[in-house]
Amino acid sequence: EAAGRSGSPDAFVLAAYFARGDRGDRVLAVIEPVWRKMPSDYPIELMPRDELLLLYPAVYDSELRNATEIYGVDPRLMLAIMRQESGFQPDAKSYAAARGLMQFISTTSTKVAAELGRTNFRQDELYYPPTAIRLGSRYLSDLFTLFPQQPDAVAASYNGGEDNMKRWLSRSRSNQPERYVPEIMYAQSKDYVHRVMTNYRMYQLIYDEQLNAR
User: Fold this and answer.
1) What is the pTM of this model?
2) Three-class SS string for the chain?
3) pLDDT tens per residue, range 2-22
């Protein structure tokens, strides 16, 4: 009934099956066009619960819990970045040859893989979700070492580079995101931070730290 208010019930049933199979990209292909038809000022909190869980799916939950527990990273932030980077498409590849769920470029993935003792690492392994998730968790952990308790800065660094984020942070003379985010000089990175943090807030609203729906 809830699905019938904003889209085809059959479509939402299909999306739910995709979610169970960890195909978040196909889930979004169903749910996002429906959401775009809603009025721009429609409060997302009023969206039917089952549809909201599909709009922000907790795919790869087991792999995420395992990897993020090891590296002390919030799995909801991982999901927020994956949703923005690849739309949960495991075999995504960008024009810059960024690969997989987390859209790693070769220099970053090779560096992180070496930290994990993977001297024979191949770039195509990034298309394997557990590998992408493990490397992503380790990399976010590294970024949080540079920017403790600052997910906005971590997101900016993920997109715009660590050295750039250090410079923007220094220029702002503040650890408050409302001060340092405006200092981000790249429009793409600033927009990226906004989108990732919007995703992150929604994941925090919908799921607890173990990715159980609230």
Assistant:
1) 0.92
2) CCHHHCCCHHHHHHHHHHHHCCCHHHHHHHHHHHHHCCCCCCCHHHCCHHHHHHHCCCCCHHHHHHHHHHHCCCHHHHHHHHHHHCCCCCCCECCCCCECCCCECHHHHHHHHHHCCCCCCCHHHHHCHHHHHHHHHHHHHHHHHHCCCCHHHHHHHHHHCHHHHHHHHHHHCCCCHHHHHHHCCCHHHHHHHHHHHHHHHHHHHHECCCCCEC
3) 434 455 667 888 899 999 999
